[in-house]
Amino acid sequence: MEDKRITRRQFIRDSAVVAAGVAAGLGVAGGESAKAAAGGAVDTSKILSYNPNMEYRRLGKTNLMVSAVGLGGHSGSRDKERHDIVSHCLDAGINFIDSTGSGELERDLRALAGRRNKVYFGISQTGREPRNPEFRTAKKLIGVLDDMLRRAKMEYTDLWRITMYEPGGRHSFNTSYESVEALTRAKKQGKARFIGFSSHDRRWFKFIIEYFPEVEVILFPFTTMSKAAPKDSLFPALKKCDVGAFGIKPFAAGSLFTRGREENYRRARLAIRYILYTNTVLPIPGFNNASEVDNVAKAVMERRELDLKEKVELDNAASDMWAKLPAEYQWLKDWEYV
């Protein structure tokens, strides 16, 4: 097995060197793309799993160059299936994996066996976070991270993100403060290279990234219906604070799709093209099989802007998607405006 792990001490040292050596830029919105960079401004040899057919964008103040599409969780649960999905992601140049929930962490690491150094790995533990009243102190949350790292046999993770209430605004300031304290403590201890939050509350996010400059990455829903709010949008704050953003549920938990495979694949490509054209978030869809990975990688290579016919097609598909949303995902409608 290939083993290129580094110790936590080496990680702390090297991260400081890299951060100091990378020029500051904008976040995802307006950030530099490895595909579009002129004059070799981006050193592609430093990009994990680099593929010239994939686009890479700077993830805010982390300075990581992350693939325009990442791999989300909650899908492809069998080991053989997940191994094939991860293999196709690496071949396509996808270099970010988000793992959350019981069993996903171990499953994804088994799928990555011998290849852990080829991706940026983000983790979260559903159920043992501030949504559960037992886990609303920095001490408790650090204990959860320690347990995840122990189970994963890792000294550190690339991204630790804490998932808050939906909406996050239901938390008290003290809970928010304790959560940030846990994140910053983990980073200082070398247990997480970068830190952030996941929530379904736009206004809470705006507060948290403006009040706590320690926050580097956030994850929130972004579907084919999502667009910048005409007033008090989150995106100016992301840009001002140089915070990276991942978009979860780009296919609205599968509600975008019909029963026809080819139509589903076309809708998926249209959705990815739309989201990437907004130049706001990096979508991290879940994949059920390797061919879905290849389909999304194809979308990255296609013309980005939709023509009039494609816009009408996607609008109709999105209307169907909205109508088909199951009861447990009605909250996605709250993210029509970001």
Protein model, in words:
The structure is a single chain. Helices cover 39% and strands 12% of the residues. The protein is α/β, with parallel strands linked by helices and 338 residues long. The protein has one domain: Alpha-Beta Barrel (TIM Barrel), CATH 3.20.20. Helix 2 packs parallel to helix 9 and helix 4 crosses helix 5 (173-188). The protein is globular, with a radius of gyration of 19 Å. Residues 1-6 and 8-31 have low confidence and may be disordered.
Provide a quick synopsis of the model.
The chain is an alpha/beta fold and 338 residues long. The protein contains ten helices and nine strands.
What does the secondary structure layout of this molecule look like, with pairings?
Layout: H1 8-21, E1 56-58, E2 65-67, H2 79-92, E3 96-100, H3 104-111, E4 120-124, H4 138-152, E5 157-163, H5 173-188, E6 192-198, H6 202-211, E7 217-221, H7 235-241, E8 244-248, H8 261-278, E9 282-283, H9 290-301, H10 308-324
Parallel strand pairs: 3-4, 4-5, 5-6, 6-7, 7-8, 8-9
Antiparallel strand pairs: 1-2
Helix pairs in contact: 2-3, 2-9, 4-5, 8-9
